[in-house]
Amino acid sequence: MTASKQEQYIELALDEEYYAIRIQDVQEIIRMQPITAIPGSPAHVKGVICLRGEVVSVIGLRELFGMPAKLPSKDTRIVMVKHAETFVGVIVDRIHKVTVYNSIQVPPQGKAGGPSGCLTGIGLGDDRMAGLLNTEQLWLTPS
Questions:
Q1: pLDDT tens digit string along 67-88?
Q2: 3 state SS of 43
Q3: Are 94 and 13 in contact (CB under 8 A)?
Q4: Which residues contact 111 (CB under 8 A, 6 or more apart)?
Q5: Closest CA to 47 of 58, 61, 55
Q6: What whole-number distance in Å separates Cα of residue 21 and Cα of residue 40?
Q7: Which residue from 34, 11, 26, 129 is spatially nearest to 81, judged by alpha carbons?
């Protein structure tokens, strides 16, 4: 399928793998900060942070996709994405750019596309492909 309207995406990276989130689903992008762990939670649920007086759950995209954990760097960010009536933080290695895609293809089935339902498509740009993340499904995916 081709992109009918030029939706903008925030393109982010985990090592050399690229993913993207629709810009309208992003509340803000913040620097990494201390996270309070929640005992007994899945590995990809990193814990909670307090953001302007609100408690926000934070997940690690690396762990969700089965990648080894990595210490945060100066480029590590938490992308605050809409989830129901609140927001969820998603930890990423770095933000790459704001972009539009020339076309959007159907995502691969099964584990090749990450946990089931996490990708809504594959964005094809001038210089790379990126998995388009289904932000609602990210939070619901078990480890």
A1: 998 999 999 999 999 877 788 9
A2: coil
A3: yes
A4: none
A5: 58
A6: 28
A7: 26
